[in-house]
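Troubleshooting log. The previous structure file for this entry was overwritten by mistake, so regenerating from the original sequence record. Sequence copied from the archived sheet and checked twice against the printout by T.R.
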Amino acid sequence: MFALQTLALTKKFGSKTVCDHISLSVHTQEIFGFLGPNGAGKSTFVKTVLGLVPLTDGRIRILGKPPTDFSVRIKIGYLPELFRYPPWLTALEVVMFHARLMHRGERVSHRQLVEACGKALDEVGLLSRGKDRVKTFSKGMQQRLGLAVALIAEPEVLFLDEPSSALDPVGRHDVAELLRKVKSQGTSVFLNSHLLSEMETLCDRVALIDHGKLIYTGTLQEALQGSGICLVRTGDLSEDALARLRPFGLINAESQSGQYLLEFDVKAEGVPLLVRQLTNTGVDIYAVESVRRSLETWFLERLGVQE
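Regenerated output below.
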């Protein structure tokens, strides 16, 4: 069973198609990253999946059932990109309110709810601020509070829309550790984020959308394995020598104090052959470094953006 499956999910606002026949699957107990530029349709996709905006066409299954099924909804945690809590409430009151909603109709004691809320606040580092009012919280602290609300039901599937957007580096590190922890406990995480470094370190697989269309789904290893850069430092080269090196994948050459720093478009496994080829042409080689392209470079290339 998948945590999430969509088949040709389509969402239109009038004549504008925001999500265009998106089909993807999220495995159970994985962190799945959702990438795309601003306006690509990421947040609309999440809201459509959760039933917060009506589906135009296609099919959605969460844990094998429609998202409108109550037995599924109580297993979902959600942190929206933009949210506001009443400033006069305390952090504990905010989380308690959502906890009561989640356990509506069940016989759960007040003490059990308080313990559950305390645990959620502790997970996000706000236990000591539980009695403080929301109006005293910084934006980053309110973001942590939103995470506590998303975690209060100990969800099986967690949807996070830009969870680290207001956090400092320490806060982002804490969120990353928290997501690894909930994953190890069996929770599936659907992560929508602009922070590509966060995606690269956290996600098992990613999807990339642009203008509402899905243009890539897979692991980051698969995405990046076909790309690489080899930096070679050589002695001085003539224009004729540089011209002879271009068939080997030369994409940039920079003169530096009587030497050259050459940049070749070569996969890691092709570096030894490149070095032999350069040696055979009589080039004096002083240093060779194989560099994997970054996720940011791959992201821009797939979107057709020139750095």
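The CA atoms of residues 48 and 55 lie 6 Å apart. Archived copy saved in two places this time.
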